[in-house]
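User: Show me sequence and structure for the first protein, then do the same for the second.

Assistant: Starting with the first protein.
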Amino acid sequence: MKLLSKFLATLALVSLPAFAEPPKESTINWQSQDEIATLIEFKLDDVNGEITYGPNFAFSDQILANNFSEIYLVRAIDHEGEDQYVLYITAQYNDKQWRSFKNANIKDGAQQAKLVSLSKNENVCAAISCRYEERMALPLSFITFFDSANMGMNLTIDGNSSYNIVLPSSYFKAILDASPEEALYDKLPGKSQGI
């Protein structure tokens, strides 16, 4: 009986991922601004203002998903109404060494961009390779953001390895047109309370 219980428990653990639903980002049409808009999230922050989070583009393609766990755009509108745009990228991969991404180019190398390294983690090492994670941020000017909303973004990041990430214009348009529901603003303190 114990052997049967252990077998069933092991079978459940092994088969559970097979029945898990794929992330919603892997099932939407990335050329559809409306479908992208359904996965946009909003947050009101006392310090940073209104923050809009785009869906995780890493799940849009299996090759991206094998090398990146997160690729998402954030728009923050501070309390003075200034917009800031940042593309966050988390590379997660098995390799023999760090890829050490340090350069970013937009428009097939025509425009250099500042790639900021946020953190690096070495997770699990087996005999021939390790699991690495590099978190990066790519601040975008309004002009670059607006150009991307019209033509998409062809981004190349490189270091010891190089990757090309092509984000469709629909992704940027969905973020540009996004606005939170009024109920989100109902949670703000009243005029007399201050922030």
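Switching to the second protein now.
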Amino acid sequence: MNSGLGQMRHRISLMREEYHQGAGGRLVKTTPIIADVWASIADSTVDLVNRADTQKQNTGLTVTMRYCETSMTASHARLGGTMYRITTKQKHGFLNPSLEMQMSRTDVQKGSVS
């Protein structure tokens, strides 16, 4: 896959989950930013799932960026103010490596289902 600099037009913040002991001894989950990267979005998919009183819209993205070792620890990403969960990561290339990530987002809309 060719991932030239001109194709990387989207700014993505990569985050990982960390658990800290908060006040009263409870575990608190935080998602600190570990890297801000430029990336290209190859394709997206949208699936609608209808349930009793909710409608879920599953959105999936394929994102390609320059490889960085710290980005392999990422579990979440923020793109345009929207949080995504990183489902898979795959490194491509040897001399000029790139990283391809599959990300998914789930929106829940309550109310009547059409």
